[in-house]
Amino acid sequence: MKRWLSWWDGRVVLLTLDVAVAAAVIVVTLTGGDPRDPHPALYVPAVFVSGVVLLARRRWPFVVLLVAAACLPAGVTLLPITVATYSVAARHGVGLRTGAAAIVAGLTGNALGLLKGPVNVMAVVILLGLFVAGPVLAGLWMHQRAALLGVLRERADEAERTRTLLADQAVFAERRRIAREMHDVVAHRVTAVALQAGALSLRAPDEKTEQAAETIRATSATALDELRGILRVLRDDAPSGSGEANPGVLASLEDLVEEVVTTGARVELELPDPLPAVPDQVGRAVYRVVQESLTNAGKHAPHAAVDVRLAVTGDRLAVEVVNRLTPHGSAVPGSGYGLVGMRERVELAGGDLRTGPTGDGRFRVLAGFPVGEAS
């Protein structure tokens, strides 16, 4: 069925139209033909053949024309050959086939009339105009219209591709600008913090101060490493990772929690054993959700205990971060985009995110991701 519909460009409406045309031709021919002259026994079969064959006029219009011409001696009207002539012109345009179709239609359509009696020039002209020139001109117009629409579609597609290319170029230029700004401003500031923390650790008056300075220096160095990765992606448009499943990113959560704990925070981490294998995009989203949640907890509920739990249920990975709400937050300013960016990253990974107070004095971040069965 699909192959047959390809004759009509896969459009049922065109098939319906051709069926209606064939039926109309059969009805008109039966009512307007002459079954007595010259072969009455062949009249009805010829009528149905000349009508049904029109269903193939979009695929083989010239063959349909020849069949319609062959049916004329049985007393069939000129309507089938007229439709076939139009179809040849509409399919092939100006060319040899259209010219041959006009000649066949002109000769066969007038030959029988000429053989029956004296030549009537006016009748011949009328027949040529109505049943040959008219269908040919209409078919050529449809052919040109279809060609024009094809050109317009190609231009529209080309314009769309050009717009997409320009948009990609604009995005790439903006990414490079952002990368320059981040390198010139953020990287410089973080480097200064790392250097000052390193200097402080060397001149620390006591062990506690030295440990705090070393933690600041190590955190700044890690931030610089992550910033370099972001700058590489922004500048080179490098792929952010493969889609292969692995538990590597989830395993790094332990290092993340350990870094946060060294700053004095109280964090409890619960991971499934064994860790599920997840795509890199999901793994990075989980890591960023935990990282951002710990950062927000440190800002808005300093010194409050934080519970981080990952659990696998069927084909879903749940990430839950819960902390107690405190009346006073830290003095560290926030960007206001933490939860927004977290939600966007989770949705890009195919997950969902819910955040907010739980009603018992706690704040919860709950993210769910689709993963395979736990290994």
What is the compact description of this entry?
With 375 residues, the protein is α+β, with helices and mostly antiparallel strands.
How does this structure look, described?
With 375 residues, the chain is α+β, with helices and mostly antiparallel strands. It folds into 3 domains: 2-119, no CATH class; 168-236; 245-370, Heat Shock Protein 90, CATH 3.30.565.10. It is built from 12 helices and 7 strands. The strands form 2 sheets. A 5-stranded mixed beta sheet has the order 2-4-5-7-6, with helices on one face. A two-stranded antiparallel ribbon has the order 1-3. A hairpin with a 2-residue loop joins strand 4 (306-313) and strand 5. Helix 6 (96-116) runs antiparallel to helix 7 (121-202). The longest helix has 82 residues, at 121-202. It is elongated, with a radius of gyration of 40 Å. The relative contact order is 0.05. Residues 238-243 have low confidence and may be disordered.
